[in-house]
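Researcher: For the record, we're logging two predictions in this thread. I'll number them. Prediction 1 follows.
Model: Prediction 1, sequence and structure:
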Amino acid sequence: MKHDWQIPNLSCGHCVAAVTRTVHALDAQAKVDIDLPARRVQVESDVETARIVAALTAEGYAPKQAN
């Protein structure tokens, strides 16, 4: 399943590492692509969307559906 989100407070390399680490904690095989200037995150994973959103939100990176 492919997820495409905007994360408004994604602003630095630490944020990128935290988002990547959070997704990989749920699915070590997930593919995570992050466009930092656009604050856009694309994740390919078999994990339910709600679980990924909840984990990212708990880390302070609440994703919003990308346009």
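Researcher: Logged. Prediction 2.
Model: Prediction 2, sequence and structure:
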Amino acid sequence: MDAFTKEMEEHLLKERDALLKKLNNEGDTFREEAQLSSGRGDSSDLASDEGSYRKMEALNAMDAQRLKAIENALKRIADGKYGICLQCGRKIPEERLRAIPSAVLCVECKSENERMNR
């Protein structure tokens, strides 16, 4: 493994650990709030609580998606395929990987995909 890939692996592991800690803490907070709010308040309190729950669920879903991308990047490192565009097979520039360590597409392929999905 070259120095850049090792650096990215360390970065991804730190990011994964921080994300797992955040998800665990948010899960604890969510459970505590659910226990405290059950059986209290009027309909407007319940509606507010429901809105908060939906927001937390959406944020947790985004974090779960990010965690999956990190796990996939770590697997590509282990498989020796990190930094290779999944679409064209070319090397993804280091600058892109520093900005988005879990990137799976080079800039050109990402731009092409975005144009096609408009």
